Amino acid sequence: MPKHARDLPFPALAVDPAASRPLHRQIYFAIREAILEGRLKPGARLPATRALASDLCVSRNTVMAAFEQLRAEGYIDGRVGAGSFIPTNLPDEAPPRRRPPGPARAASPRRISARGAMLVGLRHHGSRPRPFSPGLPELEQFPFRDWARLLARRWRRPHRAFLVGGEPGGYRPLCEAIADYLAMARAVFCRADQVIITSGAQQALDLAARVLIDPDDPVWMEEPGYPPTSAVLRAAGARVVPVPVDDEGLSVIAGRALEPAPRLVCVSPSHQYPLGVTMSLKRRLELLECARAIDGMVIEDDYDSEYRYAGRPLAALQGLDGDGRVIYLGTMSKVMFPGLRIGYMVVPEHLVDAFLAVRAMVDAHPSSIAQAALADFITEGFLGAHIRRMRQLYAERQAALIEAFHTRFGERLALAPAAAGMHLVARLAPSSDDRRVARRAAEAGVETPALSYYYQGPPAARGLLLGYAGVNQRATERAADRLSEIL
Q1: pTM, to two decimals
Q2: pLDDT at 56 over 70
């Protein structure tokens, strides 16, 4: 391995020839302080004396004198042929962190905006790698060898454009691949120009809120629904109106009674989160007609529509829209892995320029190399093959989860099969404290968010969300045993 391979960035160091302290002592104290304050970590390699002398514009003998003093006191360790390193055992403890003079004062809450305070208060449920984590896909069986090969191929001789920038809308071949994939798999009608690559579906929602919402605009949202969606909408100044969800999805009639003219409607029609119901065709048409009548827009979150196990999937809402009122959101987090951080949105043609302008302002463009590898992953058939394998696996795991719960709980805990998705909802008695059960389960290493957490108003039902996609049968049975002890 080259000697420079373990070098770490060296802390900023400056010397003053006009100071009364000799130059070698200035260097000594600067490095000693960096070590004791933790800016130079144990095992870090110091620059060569010749290189450091050149950087500081001093003689090499000056640097060598400072290093000799540090070595004599045990602050650095010289190795023949390898250079100077920070040892693991230091002679002194680090000095206390410096504090500004005067009494300590807490930062005033007026220093952050109302939007910032609201976001700070949001409780976030991440996809933790624990049994029953909702939305967590199977990671062990992802074709990492193929993915690594595609990445390596792109990195071996990267185009100059990948290294210096990118288009706000995303890598054009990836936009084309996604447009073709959506047309085939979800009956989404769009051109590649309408596809915008984002850092996940959450960023896509944030872009939509920035483009479409003015302060105090009414927005329908499913009740129960995904809390981060509500947070993004409220942060944009929207007046969020929770609209109840029944067995056919969001109730358009109930929504019109609560707020007759919403500026925006946020729905997950293919597999509602968290209840898991599928919006009926009748409701979809009602919603589109309502949007046309009031000149509103609809955001369709199609987060896990690839996984359907029974019956024919209904076409995406966007595919039924002939008036340019639906913005379609998708993500690769559920079909590949969450750490990829690539999502996409399909925007009506008349809004493309506005969305691209805001996209460029937010973070310019996503990672170019990852986009290029993903385009190859899709066009060379790896994505389709992986989805087919996972669809079969997830159907088996859903059945294993239902069997494990039926064996342990019988009729005491209602758990019904679902035709789609990656999680089930285990219904508890209305008097149950599902949040307390969820907390105790988390303490036992099982991630089962409480259903009541997803309601903005008084919860109409109690239960636990059980993700099964990323949990093998043995882990499912162990986690079910833990829940049995808790319940």
Answers
A1: 0.80
A2: yes
